[in-house]
Design goal:
single chain, 445 residues, alpha/beta, TIM Barrel, eight-stranded parallel beta barrel, two-stranded antiparallel ribbon, 37% helix, 11% strand
Length: 445
């Protein structure tokens, strides 16, 4: 029987992890979270950040709406040292919904105004401006630019296609992929002009650049060898780096493992199992650091559309996870720690702490102290409680009455392309959106 989060003390949680045969790092205090840090020319005022969580609330032209603005202003006021924006599409056909953010020359001023407001809010409320990262993305298999599936895929993936149909006509050509290399460069220049501090060439969670990393059997120049499978990512980064300066950096958010056996998974053993194998992820991170000059990255895992328990361990939702959530948390941090140990010079942000609720702050501090990572990004927690950094700073601990309950409802809204936030603790709009979503499911079932 699957158990819900019920731990009345940290000791009780640790004991359950030990029963499951996993180890999680915890610290006795949270002081390390408020140490400043540098990664190349980038400076972070603390080691807490908000992770990318799509809001699906952009204007039709891709510019941020008032709802988008409110979400990010709350995060800036809350004290995060870094705000890693949600996915921003670099091409119309690559949008995940008709309401995904997209940056263009025509809507650039809207991003400028929002970023100016975020930095002003951070300075006023916290004495520093948050470091802003724009996540440049192509949704690939999960493209829905007109509100219905229009997949653009790297190769046929039977595990992914159980939930979203695709056929050979959806496979993008090498010429199309080559054209995207320059689009990442164009997006970087737009991001710089818009007032972002960095641009992320995104390769995670089953989207196009990440799917290419496991395109072992794709013919042509973007499949087969490690060099070919990483070509679009690295060439996209090279193009983006033309915009780099002392005040503007290039980074990447990368999935190190997706949970599917070879030849359909990256970061897995090639023995037919889904056992994690960090050999290729470590090679990639090392080459990004030593050859491409990337100085910080965010590491994540899984595919939120297909195996969300890997990406965001949770208690309950539309389905019961296949494993205990503490196992998923441990897999995430130990995989990240293995990469950090192998490439110690890379500044690495870890992901997925929110399942641990009121103990997530001690976990983040422990992960940093034990050398698993240099910073921790909170996604669902930022939806539920954007003030969590200042709560930890001012009281020493996060407010247990405001934490994310990992119910999975925000994830349901994201995947449905509806305005997204915390259904339990957020704007009532999100609860209404969830009710409408459930009613639509019932009507169509």
């Amino acid at each position: 029987m699957h158990e819900k989060f019920h731990y009345r003390s940290l000791e009780e949680l640790k004991a359950r992890a030990e029963e499951l045969g996993v180890y999680l790092p915890f610290s006795e205090d949270t002081a390390v979270l408020f140490e400043e840090a540098d990664a190349g020319d980038a400076h972070f005022h603390n080691r807490l950040g908000t992770a990318p969580m799509e809001g699906a609330d952009a204007e039709p032209d891709g510019s941020p709406s008032e709802l988008t603005r409110t979400r990010y202003l709350n995060e800036a006021a809350g004290g995060s040292g870094m705000i890693w924006y949600e996915a921003v599409s670099i091409v119309p056909e690559g949008r995940s919904s008709a309401h995904q953010l997209m940056i263009t020359r025509e809507n650039l001023d809207a991003y400028k105004r929002l970023n100016e407001a975020l930095k002003e809010t951070g300075e006023k409320q916290n004495g520093f401006a948050p470091y802003l990262v724009m996540q440049a993305n192509h949704s690939g298999r999960y493209s829905n630019p007109q509100g219905f599936p229009a997949p653009m895929i790297a190769y046929r993936h039977p595990y992914y296609e159980k939930l979203r149909a695709a056929d050979d006509s959806c496979i993008v050509s090498d010429d199309y992929l080559k054209g995207l290399e320059e689009r990442f460069g164009e997006a970087a220049f737009l991001a710089k002009e818009a007032g972002f501090d960095a641009v992320d060439v995104k390769a995670c969670h089953g989207y196009l650049l990440y799917e290419l990393l496991s395109a072992y059997e794709r013919p042509g120049e973007y499949g087969g060898s490690f060099e070919n499978r990483t070509k679009l990512l690295r060439h996209g980064i090279a193009n983006a780096k033309q915009a780099e300066s002392k005040d503007f950096q290039v980074t990447a958010r990368l999935s190190a493992y997706d949970g599917y056996p070879y030849p359909y998974g990256f970061g897995v053993a090639q023995d037919g199992s889904d056992t994690p194998d960090m050999t290729e992820p470590i090679r990639l991170i090392r080459e990004l650091y030593e050859e491409d000059g990337i100085r910080f990255v965010n590491i994540t895992m899984g595919n939120p559309y297909v195996n969300s328990h890997v990406t965001r361990p949770f208690d309950f939702g539309k389905y019961v996870p296949e494993e205990h959530p503490l196992v998923g948390v441990a897999r995430m941090i130990h995989g990240i720690g293995e990469i950090k140990k192998a490439v110690p010079g890379m500044f690495i942000s870890a992901s997925a702490p929110s399942y641990l609720r009121q103990y997530a702050d001690l976990y983040a501090a422990g992960a940093i102290k034990e050398g698993c990572c240099d910073q921790v990004l909170f996604g669902r927690m930022a939806f539920a409680d954007p003030d969590f950094p200042n709560e930890i700073k001012n009281a020493g601990r996060i407010d247990p009455k405001r934490v994310c309950l990992t119910c999975g409802k925000c994830g349901d809204l994201i995947r449905a392309g509806r305005p997204t936030g915390c259904v339990v603790r957020g704007n009532r709009l999100y609860l209404e959106q969830y009710k409408e979503y459930m009613a639509d499911l019932k009507k169509n079932s």
